[in-house]
Design brief:
Helix content is 82%, strand content 0%. It has six helices and no strands. The protein has one domain. The chain starts with a helix and ends with a helix. Helix 4 packs antiparallel against helix 5. It is mainly α and 147 residues long. The radius of gyration is 20 Å and the shape is elongated.
């Protein structure tokens, strides 16, 4: 039983690190969006050999799309509170289950605020968080008290 939990813990940390890495990369992209746009309209850009491929044209269209950047911004705002909770649980100090639960509720409130407290907008996201909370809290309880 302990070996299975140990393997699940290792996989959980890897997934958590991948999520944090992806969000950090996305945040950096968001900070550099103006530079990316300028790069893709520069005359030197069109001299590059792969610019005429379909993949590159699709990437250029995506980077130049305003709706894409609005969605990226929304994604970062939604995931920021969840990453805070993930880092809290993934840290060296093991918090109590009640504290983690409170932080999850706080994260859900922050997500609702991102969507302007309009239920039709945040309903799907909070449903996913609720579903994962039920499963995750059971595993968290086991992990915190066994390890």
């Amino acid at each position: 039983m302990f070996e299975v939990l140990h393997l699940e813990e290792r996989n959980h940390k890897a997934r958590g690190n991948q999520i944090c890495y992806s969000l950090c990369y996305t945040a950096i992209m968001m900070e550099k969006k103006d530079c990316l746009g300028k790069m893709m309209v520069d005359s030197k850009w069109f001299d590059l050999p792969n610019v005429k491929t379909k993949k590159c044209k699709d990437a250029t269209t995506t980077v130049m799309n305003i709706h894409f950047w609005k969605d990226v911004s929304l994604c970062l705002k939604v995931f920021e509170p969840l990453v805070k909770v993930l880092r809290l649980v993934d840290g060296d100090v093991k918090p109590s289950v009640g504290y983690v639960y409170g932080e999850l509720l706080k994260a859900k409130r922050e997500i609702k605020e991102v969507f302007g407290n309009m239920e039709r907008n945040y309903k799907e996201v909070t449903a996913i968080v609720d579903k994962k909370m039920k499963i995750g809290l059971i595993l968290l309880c086991m992990w915190l008290h066994i390890c």
